[in-house]
Structure formats: structure tokens, C-alpha cells
């Protein structure tokens, strides 16, 4: 049975992506790695599958966008993920490209590189939306040789471009608003998993503001970051309510608002994302607004650049989209929404 590309890569001690670059005659591979791969290919009598190679190198003018089913934009137009998707779609359509939208379940998230949408010939590259994908699965997708860009996630060890909101400074500013403008001292933070980079950065912003004012940091974590999670964590605070709550997203903030409804000592509650529901809550939600459409459009542009120039040197970066605070009534301020300078 002929040797496979993975066997050549294993024998050479390199990734499959590097072995593929060498065997396809591409540049930007070290002389040492190239020699190891060529030696391994000779020793194993490796014969490339030309039909598969031609199919993998063919252009489809289609980009796959992968989203985990737990982050499926069921809320419609105003959700964060739907705005990201629409931004990516506009950018791709302007470039004459199509978007293949793929909802991935838990089992499929473990094997992204074998999904039909990103396997041979179905798409030219993939946008991977959200932090709910295992690092190892993303790494295997990258090693398979398909260009990818992460949105609302970053994995420096994988070496791919990422597009993120400017999370930490925005939440630090929002928490400082609660402290300096409203005089709150006992402030809790409702968060999802710290393994999610956006959650970690927002928690760090909250902690930086609290530490700067000599205040106690109190963070409660949930397995996800849904409305139900926000309500559950807020329920743990009912016996000893804080003066304010910083939620790492609007969904958790909405859950907290519902849990404290009718409670005389309801705390000030703020969120992040400025989803369409934020202005419809009672009271309207003070939150951090980020241009999710711009995140999607930038990610699509970065991916198209990688697709157009597959030989470009690897220089992965985390690209940041600015965020601003939308002040409404849930923090204790009165009047219509304004921006904190």
C-alpha cells in the first residue's frame, strides 16, 4: 500500500502542512525541513495522488464559515454572530466569492479537517467563528493545508490570523465607569470559560479596574455564556447581592436582569456586544458595542489574501476591532444611550 502524506510527515518529523509544501514544490520551507521530507519520501517510495492534488489546488470561489451549534445565531439579525456572518458575506460577495455556512456539532468540532465543507475541493479556505472549537482540531485543519482565519478567538500556538474585539480595555473602562461615576465598590463578574480568549480578556479588564481601585475581585464562571448561565450565576448572588455586575456578554447580562427582577436590592448590571435585545431590556442595558460586521469583513479580507497568495510568508497576527461603551439605564444612568468618551 502506498505511503500517505501523514506517514512522510511523521518520518520527517514535520507537520503535514510542511510536508505538503515541500512535495508540492512550494517555498518558505527551511532547507533542513525540505531535506528531511525529501529523504522520507524517497525512503517510503511516496507517490503523490495527482488527482487529489489537482482537486485540492483548484479554486472554488467559495469560503466556508464554521460556527459551533451552541453559538448558532438563532436570535436573528441583531445577534453578534449573525452580524459577523453578514459582514463576512458582504466582503466576500464584493470580491466575487460565495459563503458556505456550516453549523458544526460537538463531534464534528473534533474533526474539522475532515468535514466535507473544508475537505478536498469544497472550499478554498475557512473562517472559524467563536471559541468553542478545540485547539487540536483547529491545528489539524491548519496542518491540512487550507487557509483559515479565526474570529472571536485566538490560538497563537497554531499560527493563524485572528480577528478579535478590543476586549480588555473596553471592559476595564466599563468597570471603571461603575466605580468612578456610580461609586460602586462591591462588583461581581459573570463569565464563561477562561479557556475562551474573549472571556479571559474581558475578565482581565474587569480585574484591572478593580485592582486599580483596591477592590475585591469576584468572578463566577459557567460552562458556557448563555442567558440561562447568567441567570444561574446571578442566583448565587441573591443572598448577598453586589452593588453591580459586569457580565462578559449581553446574554449573561440579560439572564442576570431576569433573575434580579423584582428584587429590591437589584444591582447595576452591564454587558458586552450591544445585541439588538440590549435596548429592549428593562431597564435598557448598558453594554460595550463592537462592530461585529467589521470583524467579519476584515476576517474575510485576510482569508482571501491568504488564498490568493499561498506562498506568502507566515506572519500571523491578532487584529483588533475597537469597542465603545453604550451607556443606558441598567448601570444607573438616566436618558437615552450615549457613548463614554
Task: Please explain how this structure is put together.
- The chain is built from twelve helices and 13 strands.
- The relative contact order is 0.13.
- It has helices at residues 5-12, 16-23, 31-44, 50-57, 80-94, 106-109, 135-143, 167-181, 197-212, 227-235, 250-259, 292-308; strands spanning 62-68, 98-104, 125-129, 148-151, 161-165, 187-191, 218-221, 244-247, 268-270, 287-290, 318-321, 323-327, 338-339.
- The radius of gyration is 23 Å and the shape is elongated.
- It is α/β, with parallel strands linked by helices and 341 residues long.
- Strand 1 (62-68), helix 5 and strand 2 (98-104) form a beta-alpha-beta unit.
- It has three domains: 5-48, no CATH class; 61-165 and 292-321, Response regulator (Rossmann fold), CATH 3.40.50; 167-290 and 325-339, Response regulator (Rossmann fold).
Shape: elongated
Largest sheet entry: 6 strands, parallel
Looking at the structure, the CATH topology of the largest domain is Rossmann fold
Helix content: 25-40%
Element pattern in H and E: HHHHEHEHEHEEHEHEHEHEEHEEE
Number of helices: 12
Residues in β-strands, percent: 15-25%
Instruction: Please give the domain count.
Output: 3
What are the low-pLDDT stretches, counting only 5+ consecutive residues below 50? 50-56
Q: Looking at this structure, what is the CATH superfamily of the largest domain? A: Response regulator
Amino acid at each position: 500500500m502506498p505511503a500517505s502524506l501523514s506517514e512522510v510527515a511523521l518520518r520527517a518529523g514535520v507537520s503535514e502542512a510542511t510536508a505538503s509544501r515541500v512535495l508540492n514544490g512550494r517555498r518558505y520551507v527551511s532547507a533542513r525541513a525540505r531535506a528531511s521530507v525529501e529523504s522520507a519520501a524517497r525512503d517510503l517510495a511516496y507517490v503523490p495522488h495527482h488527482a487529489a492534488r489537482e482537486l485540492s489546488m483548484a479554486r472554488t470561489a467559495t469560503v466556508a464559515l464554521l460556527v459551533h451549534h451552541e453559538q448558532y445565531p438563532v436570535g436573528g439579525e441583531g445577534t453578534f454572530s449573525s452580524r459577523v456572518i453578514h459582514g463576512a458575506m458582504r466582503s466576500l460577495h464584493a470580491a466575487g466569492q460565495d459563503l458556505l455556512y456550516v453549523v458544526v456539532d460537538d463531534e464534528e468540532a473534533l474533526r474539522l479537517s475532515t468535514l466535507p465543507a473544508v475537505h478536498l475541493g469544497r472550499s478554498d479556505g475557512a473562517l472559524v467563528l467563536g471559541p468553542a472549537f478545540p485547539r487540536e482540531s483547529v491545528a489539524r485543519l491548519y496542518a491540512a493545508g487550507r487557509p483559515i482565519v479565526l474570529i472571536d478567538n485566538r490560538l497563537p500556538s497554531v499560527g493563524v490570523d485572528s480577528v478579535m474585539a478590543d476586549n480588555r480595555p473596553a471592559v476595564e473602562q466599563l468597570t471603571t465607569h461603575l466605580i468612578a461615576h456610580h461609586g460602586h465598590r462591591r462588583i461581581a463578574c459573570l463569565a464563561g470559560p477562561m479557556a475562551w480568549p474573549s472571556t479571559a480578556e474581558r475578565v482581565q479588564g474587569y480585574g484591572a479596574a478593580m485592582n486599580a481601585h483596591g477592590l475585591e475581585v469576584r468572578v463566577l464562571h459557567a460552562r458556557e455564556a448563555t442567558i440561562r448561565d447568567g441567570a444561574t450565576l446571578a442566583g448565587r448572588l441573591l443572598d448577598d447581592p453586589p452593588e453591580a455586575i459586569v457580565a462578559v456578554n449581553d446574554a449573561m447580562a440579560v439572564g442576570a436582569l431576569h433573575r434580579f427582577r423584582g428584587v429590591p436590592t437589584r444591582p447595576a448590571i452591564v454587558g458586552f456586544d450591544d445585541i439588538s435585545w440590549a435596548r429592549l431590556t428593562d431597564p435598557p442595558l448598558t453594554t460595550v458595542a463592537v462592530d461585529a460586521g467589521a470583524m467579519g469583513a476584515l476576517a474575510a479580507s485576510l482569508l482571501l489574501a491568504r488564498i490568493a497568495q499561498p506562498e506568502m510568508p507566515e506572519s500571523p497576527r491578532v487584529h483588533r476591532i475597537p469597542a465603545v461603551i453604550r451607556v443606558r439605564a441598567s448601570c444607573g444612568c438616566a436618558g437615552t444611550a450615549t457613548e463614554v468618551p
